[in-house]
Each structure stands twice: as C-alpha cells, then as structure tokens.
Amino acid sequence: MRGPVRIVGTGLLGTSIGLGLAARGVEVQLADASPTAMRLAADYGAGRPAEPGDAPELIVVAVPPDVTAQVVARELEAFPDAVVADVASVKAVPLAELRALGADISRYLGTHPMAGRERSGALAGSGDLFVGRPWVIAGHDGISYERGSLVDDLILDLGAVPIESTPEEHDRAVAIVSHLPQLVSSLMAARLADAPDEALRLAGGGVRDVTRVAASDPALWIQILGANAPAVVEQLRALQTDLATLVDALDDVDASGSRKAVADALRAGNEGVARLPGKHGTHARFTRVQVRVDDRPGQLARLLADIGDAEVNLEDVRIDHAEGAQFGVAEITVLPEAVQRLHDALEELGWQVVA
Amino acid sequence: MRGPVRIVGTGLLGTSIGLGLAARGVEVQLADASPTAMRLAADYGAGRPAEPGDAPELIVVAVPPDVTAQVVARELEAFPDAVVADVASVKAVPLAELRALGADISRYLGTHPMAGRERSGALAGSGDLFVGRPWVIAGHDGISYERGSLVDDLILDLGAVPIESTPEEHDRAVAIVSHLPQLVSSLMAARLADAPDEALRLAGGGVRDVTRVAASDPALWIQILGANAPAVVEQLRALQTDLATLVDALDDVDASGSRKAVADALRAGNEGVARLPGKHGTHARFTRVQVRVDDRPGQLARLLADIGDAEVNLEDVRIDHAEGAQFGVAEITVLPEAVQRLHDALEELGWQVVA
C-alpha cells in the first residue's frame, strides 16, 4: 500500500495529481507558497493541508520550471527519507542545477506528464487529466531502482503511461513536439493581432486549431523556452530554411520548379502529420475501413457489436452523418492485419463496406 | 419557392450543398466530369442526375479552383437564363479569367463558403456542413441585385451566414485566416517527418491541433496558393520577420532584452487568438461527453449500445487511447439537451464519465 504523498505547488498539475491520488484513497498532503491556492486545492478535494510532523514517502514538486530545482533541493533536505519527483516541462536544466546545489539526487527523479490544458490553476484540475497520456521519466544513474519504482507507481496510479527517457533525449523531443508547436502557433496568432476585422469574421476550424495553444501563459512559456533554448533554436532554424524556400517559390509561382517546391512543402507536412501516433487513424500503423450505417439510434452499436463478435479490436471509430443524408459512414480504424477479416465478416452480415 | 438548382462538381462542397438543398425539398440536378462520382452523390441523397432539357434557375459550380472559370463560362453559355455561382477558395483570379474569356458576368457571382474538412469527396459531405459558418459573397458591379439575391437565398437556405465582400478583400482575408494557417501547419508538420520515434510518442493535444490541417490535399492547395500568391507572400514575409526576432532572442536568451522579446511574441499570440470570434473550434450546436472504456474488443460496442438504449443519437464518436494504456477515453458528441440524460444513464450502468 502506498504511503503519504506530499504535493508542493497546487496549480493545474499538482491539484490534478492530488485529485487522482485522493480518489484512490492515498493520503495527500498539500503545500503551496500561496496559502490561498493551497486551501483552494484542498477544498476542491485534492488532499489536506500539510502539517508539521508529516512524513511523506513521496514528494511531487509541481512548481514553475525556474524555481523547480530550488524547491526540490529544499524538499530533499527537509524530508531526508522521502523520494522527490518534479513535473517540470524541461529536464536537463533542473538536474544540472540540483547537481550544482549539491543536492542528494540519489532520492530525486525528474518526470514530465504530457498533459495540460490552455487553462491553469486548481479549478482546471482533474484527477483524470493524465489518463492514457504519456508521462516521461527522465532517469539518471544516481537513483536506485527501488526508489524510482515509487515514481512508476504514481504514474500508473494516475492512469498514465510511463515512458523511460533521459533528460537530454526528453528535452530534444519536447523541442519538436511541444515547444516548436507552441511558437509556431503564437507566431501565426500574432498575424491575427493586426488583421482587419473583416478577415477575422472568415476564420474557420483550421485557423482555430492552429492557434489554439497560442492562448497559453507567456510567463510559464518564457521559463520553459529559456531552459531549452538550444534545442528550440535548432528546430526554429530548420523551420526558417523551409520557410525561405516556400517564400521564394510563391514569390515567383510561375517560374519553373516553383509549384513543385510548394507541393513538396505540403507533402512533407502530410508525411509529418501521418507519423503522429494514435488518434484519428492517421498513424501509418493503422488502416481505416469505411462502412455505411443508417442514420438512426442503435445502428452504430449493432455494427460495433458485429466487429466485437469478429474479435477485431478497434483503434478508433468515427461516424460522419449528414442532416438530410439517407445514411452515414462509420470509419473504423484497425490494425492492418485485421482488415481482411473485418471486411469479410461485415459483408457476410450484410454491411456495406464502402472503402 | 426556389426553382431547380444544378450542381456541377460533386465533391465535398457540391455534395454537401446538394444534401442541404434536397433536405429542404429543392430539386437538385447533379453533374460531374466523373459519372461515378456523380452517381455516388446521387445515391447519397444529394439530388438526381442532370438530364437533357433541365432548366435550372441557379447553377453552383463546385470544381477545383484552376478549372473554375472555364466551367463557369461553359455553364453561363449552356444555360442562358440561369445565374451561376462558384464556391472556389480564391475569388479575384476566376473573375479576371471570366472577364478575359468574355463571359456574361451579369449572371455570375463568386462565393466562398468558409467550411471544409481535412477529408474530401461525396462521402465526407454533409447537409449541415455550412450551418452557422460564414459564406463570402465576392460581389462585383456587373450583376443586378435581383440575380444576386438568388445566391443570398441559397446561402441562407443552407444555414450559413452571408458576408458581403469584394474579390480582392476576400483574397487578402483568406491569406491571413486560411492560407497562412495551412502553410504554418504544413511547415510544423514537416518538422515531424524526420523526428525520432521517441519524440513522436510524446505528442500531445497541442501538436495535434497545430498540425491537423497539414493533412490537407497538396493538389488542391497548390491551386489555391498559386491563385493567391502575392497576398500569401506578404503574410509569410511578416512571419519571417517575427521568426527572425524570436530566433535571435532565443539564441542568446540571457542577453538583455531577450526574454522580453520572447514574451512579446507569446503575448502577441495571446492577443491574436483572443480576436477569433466565437468558441474555440467546437461546433456551437454540439456538446462532448468523455467516457472511460477498457481497451478490449466489444467494450465500445457495449457503450454505444447503452447510448442507443438511452435513445440518445450520436453526432460523432472518437476514441483516444495511448500505446500500452489499459483503457481509453471515448468522446461522444451529442446535442446539448441530451447531455444530462446521457450522463445519468451511463453512470447508472456503471460507466465512468470523466468529463
């Protein structure tokens, strides 16, 4: 059975961790530099206020990146029997800072849950925030397996998927999949800042998707980007090169090779987005099968029951139907090896497989 | 009462227009260069095949941008009593081409519905694709008010919001809110194309949002961008300037003024995204409910059967689960008035509604 967990910092992540653990019956002790913020998280159900004499087994530091190392060092000293983990979005700088501070890193493990929202603070917290999400453990060789396993258990208890990495590998990875998208989104959104009102009225789903994360908190992001600047600059420079090629091509679009250069940029984008795992069936590992379904309650359930009977496991399913259309289309995402079996089983049962 | 409408081109937009009009009892005549595509749209409920002797009152040309002017000119000639509208994503070039062809533009009006999907074709079509969406009318002074009002009626019948503009103003506006987001998304996604697998495993909602439209069809986009290159280049150059400032700042992040420059870029993004009208990408008519589902065959079918038993009609369903996770999250899209009933029914049956 898990011992008490102390959470330092009751923003979105700290509160969400507290809510998830408390729901599983774990004793959660909450601390925050702001007593008001701590009280709010406690009232919200994320745990009880920390008290003198508390003896946590595990401490989770969930404070902004630029004070993470300092708070971790303080906690390591105050609780000499506890393992301390942090959840900051960068991993190499905090570890280096802890080493420079001479902290006992044999009890420290850096982690990073890949979950968040545009909103922040305790009231945006949710015990389910981490469910099914990757959670990086940025290991180092100064901590024992036994101590590290306390952190594994935390991650598993919260329904997340532990991913073993190193601080350097993690920071390079998030430069590509998190920090660059943030900056690209902010740069795009900045173009909207002085666009004419008439243009903004025409905004559709595309520009909304691209600019959604541009609503993120600048104060937090300046810390994240500051602590991972070299890896981020490397990505931005690659983007600059591609952008310059595109501008040259569009600037003289009728010149020989120009249209091909633009098409190449668009195709490279197709390739990149297809590599994203999981959701929406775009991953190369999966194949999509489209089946016609009548537009009335129960039809999709019947289809999925038939798929279950065929012992095919769905990776994703989407239904598309149309006001006024006579039928809809269910798009079933499965592993490629299951496609033929699924196809045969469905046709035998009278379903119309359209693609 | 509205006279017959002829639709030329039965891709996503043509089929969706046909479905929407047919549902309102309008006689819809379908034509497409591909008889198979036309037949599919007709089977789908978008109208009936066009026949010799048809006398449409209004013709909607929904073909790729680079053949739009040519098809509009042909339709104007073949149907001397009809008003012809197109729905291409660029407006100045087609009008100029029609003028050069000597077409009777007193019966032509260019329009552009701001609605679309990453997917294309009749089977992605939906009669409610345009509901609540802006639909630009790129007016010119060669067409009478009476003739133009036929096009207004079409737009209103499909539930869209008519927006009066000019071809030039439209093209500048879509350069900012549509063409630039497309290119930014493609450039970002291209960075994923040669990223390490380890990085892609960490991809979260942010990078998915930013890169979603990067899945769009390069063949279509090269036509759009080619016909609006000067306005797009102007936007790309402004982006280049901002990007260069950001790279300089992050390249020497501890220099005086560097952090402020990064914060300024992020704040400009905040300002821009705040200017987008309405809700963030969610269709105002629908609400999403998230339910935990175990990752084994038949679970989703059981969930959907339970939803069917509760007599709730699904608008959409998506499932999200991480590699290695024991369960996933099904996102159920329903009409807002069904949410409470769905929530209660599912909880009573033991489902865990997570949001």
Keywords:
eight-stranded mixed β-sheet; Alpha-Beta Plaits; Rossmann fold; 355 residues; 6-phosphogluconate dehydrogenase C-terminal fold; globular; 3 domains; four-stranded antiparallel β-sheet; alpha/beta
Protein architecture, described:
2 copies of one chain form a homodimer. The first copy, chain A, has 355 residues and is an alpha/beta fold. Chain A has 3 domains: 161 residues, Rossmann fold, CATH 3.40.50.720; 104 residues, 6-phosphogluconate dehydrogenase C-terminal like domain (6-phosphogluconate dehydrogenase C-terminal fold); 67 residues, ACT domain (Alpha-Beta Plaits, 2-Layer Sandwich), CATH 3.30.70. Helices cover 47% and strands 16% of the residues of chain A. In chain A, strands 3-2-1-4-5-6-7-8 form an 8-stranded mixed sheet, sandwiched between helices. About 2% of the residues of chain A have low confidence.
